[in-house]
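Give me the fold.
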Amino acid sequence: MVRLTLFTGCFTLVKQVAVEASILSVLKYFNIELVVPRSVNCCGFAFRSVYPSLSLYLTGRLLASLYDAESSGILALCNGCYLMLREAIHRLRENPRQLEFVRSYLREEGLDLRSIPRIVHPIELFHDMIGIEVLRGISRGGQDRNTVIATHYGCHALRPSTIPSFDNPLNPSKMERIIEALGFRTRDYPERLDCCGAVLLASNPSLAMKMAYSKISGTARWGFQLLVTTCPYCFEMLDSRQEAVMQMFGDEPKLPVMLLTQLIGLQIGLSEGSVALNLNLSPVDRVLPYILRR
């Protein structure tokens, strides 16, 4: 049995609880043991630009407090948290002075960086740890094989390219392989690696909405029936805010959006409620007849 320490991040619990609810339901099926920590802190993403040393300390504190010798790693549900954790590991390994800075403050709390854990992304979990062959095994038919699904990785899952990630930052393919293993079709499209606009919501909301509109309308224009992502911030922009985004540009909601875990959950026979599909605000009803197992 694979054992992982779960780190949801702040945004998942505050705004996008479907991310946590769906992955908890799905991983029970695959016999993945999740260790849920009693208390955690912010990953430091909010302070990354304005207070870098505090940001690094907060991420280092997470690495120390979430360490579990019997765990295969930390499963980070949020792309922003995933970036912060892998960036901190990179910096602490490359810079002994920064490592000592973080450890000096950790000692005051009785904590220490005894070992650097593996940081696991949900796509990595399904592709590398659960495996493509296992996913092919759950695809028992009933879906419309002509359904074409667009993938959306999100910026912080892959970039910057100077920090090791789970896939090729310029031409990722693991989510596409997962989609195909589930029995659906997918293909490349010009907006595949575009930003959803979430990081600009606070500083330049109009530009953020424009970027989200470009992603939604562009993806729909290429004939995809569904867009799938794993990131709570991307899901916020492309699903939860889709109606507001489209209205802002004189358009209407047109692209069903799901979490990857919701799609997988439906393929293993979980109910729509079990994967929190009732929380989706994009027009997912349009695509359900084509992806539900019958």
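The radius of gyration is 19 Å.
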